[in-house]
Amino acid sequence: MEGRYNYQHFKFAPYKRLFGDFLKSMPIGSEAPDFACTDTEGRRTRLSDYRGRSFVVLEFGCITCAPAVTQSALYSTSISRKLVSRFAGKGVEFLMVYTREAHPGERTPGHRSFREKMEAARRFKKVDRISLRVLVDGLDGRIHRKYGLLPNMVYIVDKKGNIAYKASWTDAGDVGEALSNLLLWEKGAKTRHTVGMVEKFHFIKDDNIRLHSRIYARGGEQALREIREELGLDV
User: How far apart are CA 20 and CA 28, in angstroms?
Assistant: First the structure.
């Protein structure tokens, strides 16, 4: 799966190792890897453009990854529907990096060209009403590879360009709490809060199987079958 970035069949086993690698790589306080790419509107951007100006929430996802779709857009507590407006004007930029298809199938296959990938990203932004700026990674996944290859990771990069928060799975509520704490920390001596750093396993309850099934069906019957076979989910 990792040798050939865009796969046509989902297998769970490689992700077990990727999760372990994610835990060990890029610790809090380390410099976030810089990158440049094009968004769905054709605008070019570079992560370091925000240095000194904004905190950056950097989420990874695609149209066939149910947790990415729900946490970025569909739930009332999602990043698009709650966090973007909540932190508007507070020095926070929200970016989504469009990755390979996590659950490809006959309806939405693994990308075979950058054009296909751009079309999928534009469909994702339109269908799910994504209010984040969607950046389209290269066909070879060069940005995704730098950050860990998991399907729905999220990072917060501080104004110095360092990683201030990382999660292997996006939880919009937890991201919002982290942003609030970072903004308080930025005020420094003006607050009476104590700053601490926490590492933990975070359990996310998300059992909306009916909605997840509709999202996985975007890949096609193959995607649903492989979800059942590889993960044992009743979709």
Answer: 16
Residue 22 to residue 187: CA distance in whole angstroms: 30
pLDDT in tens, 201-224: 777 777 788 999 999 999 999 999
* Predicted local confidence at residue 2, as pLDDT: 45
- Tell me the CATH number at 226: 3.40.30.10
Q: How far, in Å, CA of 223 to CA of 58, rounded? A: 26
Tokens at 134, concatenated: 């969607």
- Supply the DSSP symbol for 34: P
**DSSP three-state, residue 37:** strand
Distance in Å from the first CA to the final CA of the chain:
23
The residue segments making up the domain with residue 95 are: 14-31+48-193+204-231
- If pLDDT is split at 50, 70 and 90, which confidence band does 41 have? very high
